[in-house]
């Protein structure tokens, strides 16, 4: 603001001074014409200072003058001390700046028959007018600056007051105490910011509650096999159960514990945005064939056959993630199928789908909204993390995973990418 004022005053000062000089020169030229007219119609004695007046705003001034004859001496002047003397001013052009008796002046001149007429005004007169104009400008700037300062202070206070209030509320925010409570202030941008922060606090609280639920569930799920291991280890020690039976249960619970930890680590890895997977060109037919061979023993133990229609279907996706998703869906289908698990897939101009369905009993309608939740286990479920991991994988490859009722009578899980209706 100070820089702006300084530049404005400097610029205005220069412009004002130039305007004063131009206006004074024009006034002197007008009075010079008037003086020439008086001399041409009369004598030198007819020329008086009171006849040569000019105005600047509300001020009136008399122009000073002198007349020089052909011999170079002053024969008429507004100052009688100049009479009979050679002029101090050297007139080299019709108008300009000069010095008379040590005082700077602005002059205009014109030659007439036998004479040279010179009109002038002291520079101090210009400076006085200039200082009056500058004082007026400075007063105007001072008043304007004061008004702007008051307005700016009120505006800044109005803006910062809700921000300070919001800062205090945010500093006191604790997810244990619920959502962020901030009242509206009527300023659109600040209200939008408050609304955004309230929405963010709600998401933080929900995430915090989900984390607590997750830790409690994990603790419970991990505690169960650990207690079994500890119980049977003590039972073997106290010879309450046979060593063979106890070690068998301990081994089974250990495998269950390892599977659960592996699932948790996998879920954590998928939720880490710093671990992206590279896209690769894969053939869905080959992937389904490999997954079927890998799970053939498991399927045979359950008396289930994995079927699909062979066709060429190449897509570009992170291969490892999609293969893991397919394995999880097949394992889930094998556990619930009666005799058949069917895999289907199709591509269409860069869009694709992959579906796994079984001929089991399907998911009851009242449970269909919960099947992708962490630790939700069906009747034959193991860790309760399989479908949750599948959905997270689908999200990481920008695809959709959904549940449908299968034509075979059981469940149908479809992972699709694109807007086509498959």
Automatic annotation (TrEMBL):
Domain HAMP per the UniProt entry, residue ranges? 157-209
> What reaction gets catalysed by this protein?
ATP + protein L-histidine = ADP + protein N-phospho-L-histidine
Q: Name one GO cellular component term.
A: plasma membrane
Q: Does the keyword Magnesium apply?
A: no
The organism of origin for this protein: Cohnella abietis
InterPro entries from the entry?
HAMP_dom, HATPase_C_sf, HATPase_dom, His_kinase_dom, HisK_dim/P_dom, HisK_dim/P_sf, HssS/ArlS-like, Sig_transdc_His_kin-like_C
What are the record keywords, sorted? ATP-binding, Cell membrane, Kinase, Membrane, Nucleotide-binding, Phosphoprotein, Transferase, Transmembrane, Transmembrane helix, Two-component regulatory system
Known EC number(s)? 2.7.13.3
Q: Where in the cell is it found?
A: Cell membrane
Please indicate which superkingdom the organism of origin belongs to.
Answer: Bacteria
Q: Does the keyword section mention Cytoplasm? A: no
Q: In what residue span(s) does the Histidine kinase domain sit?
A: 217-421
Membrane spanning stretches: 133-157
> One Pfam annotation, family name?
HisKA
The lineage, from the top, is: Bacteria, Bacillati, Bacillota, Bacilli, Bacillales
Q: Which GO terms describe its molecular function?
A: ATP binding; phosphorelay sensor kinase activity
How does the protein's chain sit in the membrane according to the entry? Multi-pass membrane protein
Q: What is this protein called?
A: histidine kinase
